[in-house]
Amino acid sequence: MYDVIIIGKGPAGISASLYTVRANLKTLVIGKNDSSLWKAEKIENYYGFSQVIRGQDLLEEGEKQATRLGAEILNDKVISIEGNEHFEILTSDGKFAAKAVLIATGQPLKKVRVENLELFEGKGVSYCSTCDGFFYNNLKVGVLGYSDYALHEAIELEAFTKDITIYTNGKELEINSQFEKDVERFNVVDKQVYRIDGGEFLQKIFFKDGTSEDIDGLFVAYESPSSADFAKKLGIVTDNNAITVDSDQRTNIPGVFAAGDCTGGFKQISTAVGQGAVAGKKIIEYVRNL
Question: CATH homologous superfamily of domain 2-108+226-289?
Fold first, then answer.
């Protein structure tokens, strides 16, 4: 059991970890090197550097600092967060428990090029199996995605229906070896999706090869889950896909904090570092008061 698990190892997440680990809280930071900052070649507006620095170098130095102080850093992607008496974090390689969670995943732009996808949002298209799976009892549903995240959503939907298809949209399945047996429970269609259509509600999914299938619901679980996806699962209030927090970086769910770009506002490294510091301090208070 960790005192805190931080999802995201960018400036906000690492900044928070520097405070929690120095307060002797058992801290795990989980993230992948896939942020826009990692790819930035020139940063010249961040305090303390007389010369231009690459985003990758800045991130690597932050990780070294956190590790030196005692934080554990796991290079992995988080698939799901579940909360009860404590929080359970599921990754591609394992499951971890924590008393508190900080979401610091940034705000990646996930674009799925499928015609009419936005048109049918709330009318057959959903982004949260936990939220909307109930509406598809014994109906035919699909999951649009090709990774562990898509498989996890399909598994969650089994509580409501057995007619589940994973649509990889022309990509090969990228499933961790420990989940390979689970894939066998589902239909898998690897054709590229062109568009979806219907009347008042979703009825059909069309492929680029000219074929189509009837469908009642489509759950989008593309690439890795975003901060908004985590928020929907936990019942966290969001505004325009940004997590709503108070001045202490608290969400409406006790024990869940958020910092950095995922909270909206001024998307700068300095802002993320500051919010991470505030979140770290408030997480220390929260855990000590349990």
Answer: FAD/NAD(P)-binding domain (3.50.50.60)
- Given a contact cutoff of 8 angstroms between Cβ atoms, the answer to whether 42 and 24 are in contact is no
The 10 Å CB-count burial string (b at 16+, else e) for 146-173 is bbbbbbbbbbbbeebbeebbbbbbeeeb
Q: How far apart are CA 169 and CA 253, in angstroms?
A: 35
At 140, give phi and psi (nearest 5°): -90, 120
Q: HSE of 16 in the Cβ direction (CA atoms, 13 Å)?
A: 39
Domain extents for the chain? 2-108+226-289, 125-220
Give 243-289 pLDDT, tens digit per residue: 999 999 999 999 999 999 999 988 899 999 999 999 999 999 999 99
**Between the CA atoms of 130, 132, 135 and 138, what dihedral angle is there, to the nearest 10 degrees?**
-50
Single pTM value for the model: 0.82
First to last CA, the chain: 14
For 156-189, how does the pLDDT look when each residue is reduced to its tens digit (9 = 90+)? Answer: 999 999 999 999 999 999 888 888 899 999 999 9
CATH fourth-level superfamily of 125-220? FAD/NAD(P)-binding domain (3.50.50.60)
Residues 6+ apart with CB under 8 A from 151: 143, 166, 175, 179, 182, 183, 186
User: How many whole angstroms separate alpha carbon 79 and alpha carbon 283?
Assistant: 22
